[in-house]
Fold each of these.
Amino acid sequence: MIRSASIFKRSEDRQWAGLLYVLPFIIGMLVFKLYPFMASFYYSFTDFSLLRKETFVGLSNYVYMFTKDPLFFPSLKATFLYVLLSVPGKLGFALIIAVILNMKLKFISLYRTIYYLPSILGGSVAIAVLWRSMFTVDGIVNQFLTSIGIPAVNWFGIPSLAIMSISLLTVWQFGSSMVLFLAGLKQIPKDLYEAGTIDGASKLRMFFSITFPLLTPILFFNLIMQTVNAFQEFTAAFLITNGGPLNSTYLFGLKLYQDAFQFSKMGYASALSWILFICIMLFTIIAFKSQKYWTHYEDGGKF
Amino acid sequence: MFNIHKSIKAGMTLLLGTTLLLSACSGSNTEGKNGNDGSETTGDKEVTLRFSWWGGESRHQATLAAIQMYMDEHPSVTIEAEYGTFDGYYQKLQTQLSGGTAPDLIQLDYLWINDLVSQGDLFVDMNTLGDTIDLSEFDEQFLKDWAIINGKLQGLPTGINALTAITNKTFMEREGLPTDADWTWEQVLEEGEKLHQKNADYYLINSDLATLTEKIIPSYHSQLTGRYLVNSDYSLGFDQQSMTQTFAFLQSLFERGVLQPLGESALYNAKTEQNPKWINGQTAMTIANVTDIPKHRGTAVGFDIATTLFPIKDKAVSSGLNARPSQLIGINQGSKNIEEAAKFLDWFFTSEQATLTLGVERSIPVKPSAKKLLLDHNGLDQVVAEALDTALAHQDAAPSYINNNQELLKITNEVVEKVAFGKASPEAGAKEMVERYESKLKEIEAATKK
């Protein structure tokens, strides 16, 4: 009796020890995530400039954005367009490259490293600046195009093109999705392909009947991650086009930033960020609901 | 058991959303509460001052050298320099002021002052430091126009700035464009059209959206009507008719090929000196501030630059030109060493040593004695000095502070862009300007009176 009681006590001690180990994370989470999260929720109901104390104004920030702010809907529209352009492009590109890099080729590790590089550099300011100079009217991209007989394109000067050029920068940073696809490809059992070969299936048929279904969980994960990121895109729009021309690249992240730090409307910017949060949340819920129709888990989706 | 998978997924989603989302809005209160670590102030020993400014490399070097001189003279004072480029300076400053970590001495753009001090008492009224800082040589009207808000002298102007047109002398002489007379806008349209017809790569004026919004449009309107866009009582300085005329002028600048299409110059917005048209010598002049001359000289490879008067329209009611400060330097109201900061500032503006070391890095000094000193020591850049003298000879009344409001500038930006891209007619653009300015001005007025 006594023995078992003492064992019980000791295992309870261990539980507390576990808590101690995760304490840094918990503190970080509370201070840097939960507190700002709750604070911004509160500020979204206030009139709060950076330098003045906040005053409670109820829902008026939310009312203002839907009824008065002439840039709210254009900015939302630009953001959705950006997500629609960049995410499928990026995932498609990542998948194709992953399939190619999954083949048995010489120096394959070297290629994998090289193709991952843009993702390491991608979020940085320097790349955005480089991208800008590559796509100017007399930049290297247009020089290449004219050399093969295609007329030069004003990539960032035409409103409908500018958003695509910015999306292209994101598509180019496909590395992290690619690595995940690659890991997924490695896990597909070889015997399935062998069986397919014996049945006389073509490579394409095997890709759509074996590879793709087994990759859908990874695809799902990538879709969520990339979409959440895309909704919050800021760097490219800020550094390359600064929202222009004609607000065609005035992404929501940029609007948030300008309202907060240029116009000192912190309360309003907080309210905007909650709208963004709701958009992301809605998308994620829809994605999870739709999951059962198109993803395939070997274990049925249960742990 | 059965729902673990689901709840983990849900938790993950929530986390993803929250994590990344709020980074933009959490800056305000996360920084430390007590800045100004010059805590050992008792008994005028060992003082640490922080001084922040933006600028290019040469300004940094000159300012650092001046600071070193001051510290050599005053061993008990340490001055920590915080310098960088203009990008992000204002955003950082706002978070610092909000978190109480702002430096003691702060370089400011006059464009921000009204927006800042309408939110609270942020800077020491220099007039209360009259015993420490010699204010006698600062022009009273100049201070009143640009630095005194709510009856307080918020900062001291480091130099005088004005609008100018920086010309590519080599190009103008080759193309037979007049270099000796002042330009009118009518002449600009005429010569610009001819130039562009002669060679489709040539544009008479190198401009961008920021130049149009901040310089050409307000000045032209002032030349047309004698009024800037906003009066000091928050009422509109323009109406449907005057703005339609201004936008019709804007439209013809583009239609007649005087300005490069905005779509092409957009990538060099607020960086006209980097526009290949300027660098490659395919444009006659850049509309800019006098303080921008060194930058444009820096990228003018293979041609000579000069300046000419900012164009003024025929039968102008006013010149639309005025002297404005290049920057201001203010003392943080929350500073623990206001007295020491003021002493340094006095030295900065008054001493011969500082004046000669700083030269025209912050444009030509406001004080006549400092200007004369530089002149005597060959420290005055001839092109800069001439550009300023030309502009100041045509000086007219200054616009009210409200014209500099960032949200109003954003509205002008958008409407100007629409007209320039042909998405709105001058009439439609003017209508939008009237409506949006009126509603925004009401908001601003309401916020200021709180």
Amino acid sequence: MSDSEHRASEAGEWAGLMHGMLDGTLDDAACARFAAEVAADPARAREFARVAMLHDAIEREMTAGAIGRSTARRSRWTLSVRRAAAAVAIAAAVGVLAFVGLRGSSANAAQAELARIASISPAGQRTYVIHALRDDGRQRGREQRRAEPTSPRGARAQPSIDEATLMVGASGAYVLVRTGEDGARTVSGSDGRLSWNVPERGAVRVSRDPQRFRGALPGEQHDLPFVDPKDGLEALMRSYDVVPGPSRDIDGHAVRSLVATRRADVQRGPKGVELWYDPDTAVIRRMELDRLPQAQGGPRAVVLELLDESPLDPRQFMHESHHDADRVVITED
Amino acid sequence: MLLMDDLTRLAFADWTQAQPVVSAYVQAIVLDRAERDDVLQDVALAVLESYPGYDRSRPFLPWAMGIARHAIGDSLRRRRRRPVSIAPEAVEALAGAFAEVGQQERAALAHLADCVAKLEGRAREACDLRYRLDLKPVRIAELMGLQPNTASKLLQRVREELRACVEQRVRAEGNA
């Protein structure tokens, strides 16, 4: 290899390291090589700083839009100032602006598709299994679940959402069955009128508020309800940028996907949502909620997979079906 | 009614100038938008709180970068995340580098909007997925029907083209 070829190869490798660093694709060894380069060579550190500033500026350009392209150009630097200044009192003095992403034609098509499946999404009966995912996207094993606390220290252990079963019926009816590390089963649900919670031991609680025990459902704490598909899909339309994803086959069904990313100005909810649905019936066959807020513990990501579409006995949605007749039942309100 | 005093006004003006550089620095280290925004909030607050002690005869940006460097460390420790994936000496070297090139780059990148507006086809699609939707190259590759390495190379090429476009406009401005 000649000197010039060697230099070109080195420059190419360095460029790959810089861009890989910014895209988060470097492995530990490459990361260490990158760090050694910038620590030892101020010119390379400056070169990276320039690329990183370009990277950050492209993000601002691509996410600016609500206040118009031309205005966004004039104020592209102050756009990001708003993000940080929101934390301080003086933010009020510089005005309130919002980020709403520009939507390209594919995003418009995806929003239209989401509206379509929300409008025809069936209120039929379906059973899903829920899996918690590890950070690398794989399902968590039983050993890992044992090793990871599901509740803050000192709090009573909550049954895990991992491997829970969710049965969804009409008009907000659902049953969620969770099992704790000790094997204790907690069943919560609603018949659409009353909601209830049946722990393994202790009193059964019943409430006239149908929402009362829905907090354990994936997405429920994040304004992304899943029990009523229409509500969930409409929440997605309001707060997420949606693009069409690939198609594939799940259990012999050809399904399409939509990929939703939480908008920059929205605080609550999983950062990403993937829906895999039957384009004809709008039945959601798989739903992935990624990067869930961690403030209250729980998994970083969960997947709901359709198990069964067989009709369910309406009595399944009543608490009496899930406990012995001699259990104490407390009606809360 | 709360009134903004002169010192707060000066602090905000300085921070507005420095913030894009600090943002790029924090993002380059933490590699996560939500965490970057959290750290930036911490830095903004620390800058405002410490501003009365800031020596205004010295440049503001290196001072703010020092605060950002500490905020990154504090944030990662508080959130019990794994240690910064790059060595502390590299984090420090980068703070100096960003402070050195920051203001000049900021001026040059004023031309970026026109260059981004010219993106078309797969280049625009890749940029949209990477920057607006914050997807990683592996996911972009799935959505665009590419190999992951091809998606990474496509993004790298788009950035290099945008850089060339910006530099061309800076030169044209200089000649004019």
Amino acid sequence: MTTRDCAGLTTREINVIVRELAATGETELCLRNPEARHNLLVGLFAHLRVRLEGSAGYFCAGMIDGPEVVIDGNVGWSVAENMMSGRVTVAGNAGSSTGATIRGGTLIVHGNAGARTGIAMKGGTIVVGGNTGYMTGFMMQRGDMIICGDAGEALGDSMYTGRIFVGGKIAELGNDAVIEPLTDDDQAFLSVTLQKAGLDNGRDFKKVVSGRRLWNFSKKEMGLWIQAL
Amino acid sequence: MCGLAGLLYKQERGEGALGAPILTMLDVLGSRGVDGTGVALYGPASRDRMVARVRLGGSDDRRAQADRVVQRAAAIGRVASADVQDDYLRLEMSSNRDAAELAAAIEGPDLGVLVFSLGQRMEIVKQVGPARMLRERYGLDCFRGTHGIGHTRLATESRVDVAHCHPFWARPFPDIAVVHNGQLTNYHKMRRRFEMRGVRFYTENDSEFIAIYLAHKLAAGVSLEDAMKDSLEELDGTFTYLVSTPEGIGLARDAFATKPMVIAETDQWVALASEEVALRRAIREPFDTEEPSARTIRVWRHPGVAAALTPVGAGV
């Protein structure tokens, strides 16, 4: 395993170092003193493990395809945004737009996540050990989200498909988001995913899906549309 | 964009370095916009002293302008000290006039002279340009006190000049200031409503409205928490703002939570910034952070100072 100190380096220098090490076949890398810099590890396609010893700023591990990233501290906005594949684990809290538009991979936040978590996600899995903020899962198109704590207002607003599981309280469901009973497949998915994430499965999860009433426009349901828009 | 910063020492008699850490945060937050940088810092309290930060400007010689200001101040009170630093005159004085009269008297007929802050403890210094410039010109790194707020600006709705930089003093209410990230969409409507009651505004910046709005509520006996809760309902648009009073710092975030904020808190202090990277660069000790959720109202009070101060007249 290789260790590098980020102190005094620019974001670009750090990202170049990571790519160069990956090109030499390095499989495990530890970065000291990330100091909440933005844009760390963005666009990393190599299959290596990277550990950040501290907090990261905005867009950490955005657009990655393959790597396994562990952040020992907190992250700012848009962690793992548009991830294609890979695994990102945040030991602390995450800011707003956590896992926005991800298409694949797994994002695990052990603490709380902010507003608009999983907004427009198109695949993959997001697991949050704590609570999530306002408008989580807004316009979610595919994929799975597990929230072990409470979910903020407008949960799953205008979602197309996908599943959101909530272990705590739901402050308010969004437009056209409905609760339906869990199937055996759902239970199995929860159990396996939470175990892999190192999180407790001792809660009574609710399942939120799309009510599908906003899929097609109908004049007869004008009221529904006026409210949703 | 815009960047916000705040720092408050929680221990009684807990004065500490204010200027250096807040300006370091603003330096890092400069990536969010550098149309202007400013701070509102709370120094040691004094019962009978007012401190004014007066911006000198126009085509006049600064020294001559400062002399005229001091003469006008001496006519209605006792001037303890008057220091000119670049574009600013820092005036310490005692007077039995209220803040509104004092500020008007200090400005007098000089068109370029603007009173940016007046109070027993609060000092506002702001400038068009990045934090580095503010730091180099005004020696703020040495400023010590109980708490302070700061701002780095990306101008969106109003012009780029020093008067439209943050923080905004809630003139004429002493020792109250606001820094704001966002836009108020009902600004003109709310401002007209206040103007019809005779309230004067000094800029065309919507953030100035927040300061004056909150100060009016405080003057009417509403608690800071309740005043800020009201703002969540009555102010429309996107906002995260910090308000500073002699007691401490308040934080409010609107219902959409689109303007960022990060809180770091220990037993000794609380530090606030739009981005964690600013906190990490300014404070070199271990701390944890959290992002406040939508509709968050938080107030941190300094335990030592509030009771020691009596309010100075704030006639409107």
